[in-house]
Design goal:
There is one protein chain. This protein is an alpha/beta fold and about 270 residues long. It is built from eleven helices and ten strands. Strands 4-3-1-2-9-10 form a six-stranded parallel beta sheet, with helices on both faces. The protein has a four-stranded parallel beta sheet with strand order 6-5-7-8, with helices on both faces. Strand 1, helix 1 and strand 2 form a beta-alpha-beta unit. The radius of gyration is 18 Å and the shape is globular. The model has no long low-confidence stretch (mean pLDDT about 95). The protein binds D-glutamic acid (DGL). The site of D-glutamic acid has 18 residues, from helix 3.
């Protein structure tokens, strides 16, 4: 592997751009190839085997683009396909997901505490967070809740309004989340509603530390590149590939990345 190879990042759609943003902020000299599988989103309602098939196909695209790292910027794909993609890539690229770095961080910071998770049905039902947190053995209690309305709500730009307030408050009021002290935002769309979640928890009189994985995973990627002497010193042109292109994806990408990106259509299957 060489330092000037790009970093591949993929998600079911454009939510993973929140992770690409954090990577760009922490590693401005790296070149990014982003792949959003907009033709097949949402992943959160799909079976693990379907998500695995899409993920392998996307990993192939990113390997063809000569990526030194493949970062799975989607909790649903991380929970269904991380080990598969890691084994598939072998020595061709280092594979990161958004779950492992987060689990390591929260387990250290929350010993003997109660952690909550919200995410898609796939992420919550797969039980990967709870299994990994338990395996680290820090006497942590864990509760999770699938919150499937949040992704379409955010993609439609519905946040910081009455509707998003009621939806979020309804979820946070669920009995399973009443005792939590830390809340993991287990979906790469959710950083956009992090402030609103914090505000609503405050309104409810609750003290909960809300954490998302974007910065955590970007930092662990930086550490890896440094240790492996793979830090690039000059970024090339970033590319943002999507398997389906519509004006609404272009518009939403601005929300998630915080600046204009030019999406390029890339057909995943001929
Ligand atoms: N960004 C995906 C995740 O982190 C959620 C969107 C989807 O369901 O495809 O799980």
């Amino acid at each position: 592997m060489k330092a000037n190879q790009p970093i591949g990042i993929f998600d079911s759609g454009i939510g993973g751009l929140t992770v690409a943003r954090a990577v760009k902020d922490v590693l401005p000299n790296e070149t990014i190839v982003y792949f959003g599988d907009t033709a097949h989103l949402p992943y959160g309602d799909k079976s693990a085997s379907t998500i695995q098939a899409y993920s392998v196909k996307i990993a192939d695209v990113l390997l063809q683009k000569n990526c030194k790292v493949i970062l799975i910027a989607c909790n649903s794909a991380s929970s269904a396909a991380f080990e598969l993609i890691r084994d598939y890539c072998g020595s061709r690229a280092k594979v990161f997901d958004v779950i492992n770095p987060m689990v390591e961080r929260v387990s250290i910071e929350n010993q003997k505490k109660h952690i909550g998770l919200i995410g898609t049905k796939q992420t919550v039902n797969a039980g990967v967070y709870s299994a990994k947190i338990e395996a680290l053995g820090n006497d942590i209690e864990f509760s999770s809740l699938a919150t499937p309305l949040l992704v379409p709500m955010i993609e439609e730009g519905f946040f910081e309004n009455n509707i998003s307030h009621d939806v979020i408050a309804q979820y946070l009021g669920d009995s399973s989340l009443q005792e939590i002290e830390t809340l993991i935002l287990g979906c790469t769309h959710y950083p956009l509603i992090k402030n609103e979640i914090e505000m609503i928890l405050k309104e409810m009189g609750r003290t909960v530390d809300v954490v998302d994985s974007a910065e955590t995973v970007a930092e662990s990627l930086k550490n890896y590149l440094k240790e492996s002497e793979l830090l690039n010193d000059k970024a090339g042109t970033d590319h943002f590939l999507v398997s389906d292109l519509t004006p609404s994806f272009e518009k939403a990408s601005m929300l998630f990345f915080g600046e204009h990106v030019t999406l390029e259509k890339y057909k995943l299957w001929e």
